[in-house]
Design a protein that fits this description.
It is a single chain. The chain has about 70 residues and is mainly alpha-helical. Helix 1 packs across helix 3. About 10% of the residues are buried.
Length: about 70
């Protein structure tokens, strides 16, 4: 399932992609008139939350396995 904006079929990933390609909030709203500026802001905040940095005191197991295979 995909995270969508207020029950619309507009996904968070689409909005993040448009922003990373240099589209302004105004441009995005012109292309998708059902959106509001707050929708775009919340999509970016949600994406940031999903990718929040986690600090590990030791490498995850998968990292150790990959290092061993690459030697």
């Amino acid at each position: 399932s995909w995270a969508c904006i207020r029950g619309m079929r507009i996904t968070v990933s689409l909005l993040v992609s448009l922003v990373t390609k240099g589209k302004s909030v105004t441009d995005i709203i012109q292309e998708y008139p059902d959106l509001e500026a707050g929708d775009i802001q919340q999509a970016l905040e949600y994406a940031a939350w999903l990718t929040r940095e986690q600090v590990y005191t030791s490498p995850p197991t998968i990292f150790i396995i990959c290092q061993t295979v690459n030697k």
